[in-house]
Design brief:
The protein is of the alpha+beta class and about 600 residues long. The chain contains 13 helices and 27 strands. The strands form eight sheets. The chain has a five-stranded mixed β-sheet. Strands 26-25-24-23-27 form a five-stranded antiparallel β-sheet. Helix 3 crosses helix 4 and helix 6 crosses helix 7.
Length: about 600
């Protein structure tokens, strides 16, 4: 990450401060001229700079580095925000990467533990920059008509807009909390950016942990927003409302006004953030996902269909009625694979028999709406859900499931555990139980549909293997499955026959006729001519072919052709099917008297295919 150094920042408050040194791609100064500002904005900029100077966030400088600054209006009348354009500076800084790859699961706060929520005030402005890095974050204040020299300053704390500021903030606050975590191992201290949550089994333990956390963060130079400390339920944290036993979104309404693609993406972003807690399935979101199709311009028009509005009504109902639960430390974890329609999904839950409603929903697991594969079988979906759920639970609780409930018939489960590689991989190192006997609960029954064993053989049957190809570029697959036809009639005129197709049909001795001879401008409706003697375009006997043995170079056969594809073929020999390259196969034609050469004694002339 970088080197730790000491700093004298806020000496009167702090005991010891450390910060990370940035890694630079170049030491050559980067200078971007400050652009001119209107008098009104220039006056606001000077006032904001004066405030930052008084707080000790900036100092005068003569640094050879420079980036422009500007101001924007805030919602409050007469108030402005200072912004520093650090894009060019960010280009020459090595990326540190995030230290937290996602939000913590609030379901993992033990049930009935008391909580305290603490908010750190102006966290970035409380964390010092490394002294070697600070001069590179310089800026200038211009004057009207260049009446005076530039007033120049640089930041000594993390500036807004530095791409590594979030990472440094996470690291710095985590270091400040380390002593409190060590002194109170029985408490849970959840930290995300500048938001802290403290939980403990008893109110007395919570109070001791709370006081310790406040002391340590203040010793590190961080400031606590006392007006935002929450000690009474319901607690609000990271957009969620937490009670003694449940977790639900703070926001109970969603936007219903969609005019363009950007509005739709924002709507789906809000829903996607909540769906793992509320259990909003892919099938319920399908009408909204379908609206994403079309023009990719974010301003392109979109409007809600009746199906999409119905989906939004269901989501609004879920916001009002559904919730997740805080887990019970003494209970095991279970996984149920559910799905009343084609799409399957998972539910991580606990079962508390002492409660009136024993089902404790912790989190829902969903697969991607659009699979990278065209078709996913039920077993493949089940396997992916198990893998995703086991990974998620290990992330959340560091544990594995005691029981996994699968929506399979008994004979299907036994067969799947033996035959399905996907399921076997998903259950690697799993020491729990897989069962089809779900707990008795109305929610599980409503979302459950048992899958039966498919009528598909895992091994080849004693029958002809047929390869089909939907491409219109070749007739080989049709010949392989139906046999060589006596005649083919196409809609095009004779002048529109390709040389490759014409040569191919002549090699196989197929007579080619056209819809309207000598008049290619008006094609006739498609006509299917019979293959051999079957009016249903099926040939009972396979065509005969000759094969060149690749080892000896001798022509062998004739053999019956089983299948033919792009670059390969399979023929039936006395010792069984034989696969070989298509270039070694050529059609076998019975010689007519006109085609028989007296010099060869009626034998077919050997030609290389």
């Amino acid at each position: 990450m970088g080197r730790e150094v000491g700093s004298g920042f806020l000496v009167g408050v702090t005991v010891a401060l450390t910060t990370l040194k940035l890694t630079w791609k170049t030491d050559n100064p980067v200078w971007v001229d400050q652009w001119p500002l209107e008098r009104k904005k220039l006056s606001a900029l000077k006032n904001l700079v004066r405030e930052q100077l008084e707080k000790g966030h900036i100092v005068p400088t003569n640094s050879p580095w420079n980036s422009p600054v500007f101001v924007v209006r805030k919602k409050a009348p007469g108030s402005w925000r200072l912004l520093h354009d650090l894009r060019k500076i960010n280009e020459v800084i090595e990326e540190m990467g995030p230290l937290q790859l996602g939000l913590p699961s609030l379901s993992m706060i033990p049930r009935d533990w008391p909580l305290v929520i603490i908010d750190l005030k102006d966290c970035f402005f409380s964390i010092p920059l490394h002294p070697d890095d600070a001069p590179r974050f310089a800026f200038s204040i211009p004057s009207v008509n260049r009446e005076e020299p530039l007033q120049r300053y640089h930041w000594v704390v993390l500036p807004q807009g530095l791409k590594n500021s979030p990472t440094i903030c996470q690291w710095f606050v985590a270091r400040a909390l380390c002593p409190a975590r060590e002194k109170h191992p029985g408490a849970k201290i959840i930290h995300y950016m500048d938001d802290l949550l403290i939980a403990a089994p008893t109110q007395q333990e919570l109070q001791r942990a709370r006081d310790c956390v406040i002391t340590e963060v203040q010793n590190a130079g961080l400031e606590i927003s006392t007006s935002k400390i929450q000690e009474i339920a319901p607690w609000k944290y990271l957009g969620w409302k937490i009670t003694e036993q449940t977790v639900k979104p703070q926001k109970i309404e969603i936007r219903t006004e969609v005019n363009n693609l950007q509005d739709l993406q924002q709507l789906l972003g809000e829903v996607n953030w909540m769906r793992s807690i509320l259990g909003i399935t892919n099938d319920e979101l399908a009408p909204l996902f379908n609206l994403l199709k079309g023009d990719s311009n974010i301003k392109s028009h979109r409007s809600l269909t009746p199906e999409a509005r119905e989906a939004l009504e269901k989501i609004a109902g879920a916001l009002q009625q559904r919730q997740a639960h805080r887990f019970v430390t003494s209970l095991p974890f279970f996984l149920a694979v559910l799905g009343e329609k084609i799409q399957l999904y998972g539910l991580i839950f606990q079962w508390d028999s002492s409660q009136k409603d024993p089902l404790l929903i912790l989190e829902w697991i969903f697969l991607s709406y659009r699979s990278p594969r065209t078709i996913l079988s039920s077993l493949e979906m089940i396997a992916q859900i198990i893998i995703k759920a086991r990974t998620r639970l290990q992330t959340m609780a560091g544990k594995d499931f005691t029981t996994i409930y699968l929506p399979l018939k008994k004979d299907y489960l036994d067969w799947a555990l033996q035959k399905s590689e996907d399921l076997q991989i998903a259950l690697l190192d799993y020491s729990g139980v897989c069962t089809i006997h779900f707990p008795s609960h109305r929610l599980l029954k409503a979302k459950l549909s048992f899958r039966e064993k498919p009528k598909i053989s895992e091994v080849p049957l004693d029958a002809i293997t047929v390869f089909t190809d939907g491409s219109g570029k070749t007739h080989k697959s049709a010949f392989a499955s139906l046999g060589v036809p006596q005649e083919i009639k196409t809609d095009n005129g004779p002048t529109y026959i390709g040389k490759v197709l014409d040569k191919f049909l002549k090699r196989w001795g197929v007579h080619h006729t056209f819809g309207i001879p000598h008049s290619p401008t008006e094609p006739t409706p498609p006509i299917i001519r019979h293959f051999s003697n079957s009016t249903r375009a099926k040939l009972k006997e396979n065509p005969l072919v000759l094969v060149r043995n690749p080892e000896t170079g001798q022509i062998e056969g004739p053999f019956k052709l089983i299948t033919w594809g792009k670059g390969y073929a399979c023929v039936s020999t006395a010792v069984g099917p034989k696969w070989l390259a298509a270039r070694h196969v050529k059609p076998y034609r019975v010689q007519t008297q006109a085609e028989t050469d007296p010099k060869t004694g009626g034998r077919e002339v050997d030609t290389q295919t």
